[in-house]
Every structure is written in C-alpha cells, then in structure tokens.
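Forum: Protein Structure Q&A
Topic: Joint prediction for protein chains with partners

I've read a bunch of threads here and the consensus seems to be that you should model interacting components together rather than docking separate models afterwards. I'd like to see that in practice. Below is the full input, 177 residues plus whatever partners are listed. Could one of the regulars post the assembled result?
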Amino acid sequence: MKRLDESDFASDAVASAKALLGAWLCRRLDDGTVMRRRITETEAYCGEEDTACHAHKGRTPRTDVMYSAGGCAYVYLCYGMHEMLNVVTGPEGHPEAVLIRGVEGAEGPGRLTKLLRIDRSLNREDLVSSDRLWIESDGAKARFTASPRIGIAYATARDRRRKWRFRVEESPPRRPA
DNA sequence: AAAGTGATCATG
DNA sequence: ATGATCACTTTG
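Posted by a regular:
Agreed with the consensus. Here's the joint model:
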C-alpha cells in the first residue's frame, strides 16, 4: 500500500478518475481516529472546454483551486447542505478535477463526506502532504463501468453524453460449489 | 414528487 | 443588494 504523490495526480482527470477506483480515501480526525474507505465511484471534470465543469466560465474565487497543480482537494457546498469532495488533477493552469461520488459503505457524494467528516475546511488541502486527508493505493486496477455524469443538465448535449462517470464493477455473486 | 438549505456569481 | 442556480439527499 503506497500513499499517492504528485506524480499520481499529474495525469488528466479522466485517467485519474479511473485510477482512483479501488484506492483508499483516508481521513484522520482531530482526535486521531483514522478512517479508510475504498473509492467506488468517480466523475471527471475536464477544463474550461467542458461545459459541465465548474471552471467552464473561467477562474473565480471558487474555481481558483481547480487551476492549481494536481494533488489538492477541492471541496464545495452544494444545495446549501452537501459538502462535495474533488481531487484536483493535471498540470497547473488547467482546471481539472475528479469528483469522488462514492466509497464503500457510503454511496453518494454527499454521504461520503458526511461519513468521513469532510467539509470546506479541507478545501485546498494538499493530499500529498496532509495528515488529515490523503489517498493510498496498492496499484491494482479495478474493473469498472463508464456512464454519463449525473446532475449536469446545464451542460451542452455533447458534454452530457460523455461517459465520464466511473464505477467499480460489483464482484460477481459467489455461487455455492 | 418536492422540499430543504445557503454559497456563489452575474446583474443592477 | 437581489435573485437564479445548483456535480444532492431524504421524505412522502
């Protein structure tokens, strides 16, 4: 098991979104407890050209963090109540991020942040060096399925159609021998 | 099906 | 200052 570093977050959001499936999202609370959950679902958001991406209208106070080099967290509040966790990827200056949509035991972007107590105080947290939030992986590639992204009705039809949502394939039900 | 909730950004 | 919008979840 290896902690992901700068090089692991350097690739584009689509590649990163696939690679993060099966990796462990790790969180250390102030009281010292550490939680680790396997990532089961991700979505890629890919630059100003991607009309589904928050940064498609350019750099604003909120999207500024997406322009930094891959490896930090982008956490924002959605619908006034759900904290959403993203991992910024790619080179500095190009706003790409992977939305973490689910971990084992907490399917749904708002549920996993609640479970792992992730909120906007972790916005801009450096996942490479932080002792509060990081990712580990054994490098194994998970089998996954690709489908269109959720909740992006505002995007162009072309971008709505892109299959940039990725989910680990469920292990086949074990049959008695 | 619809509410609940508040930050964000574009408009004035 | 105001108002529309929103990468969602829960409840009925």
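Strands of chain A lie at 2-3, 24-28, 34-46, 73-78, 82-88, 96-103, 106-107, 133-137, 144-147, 165-168.
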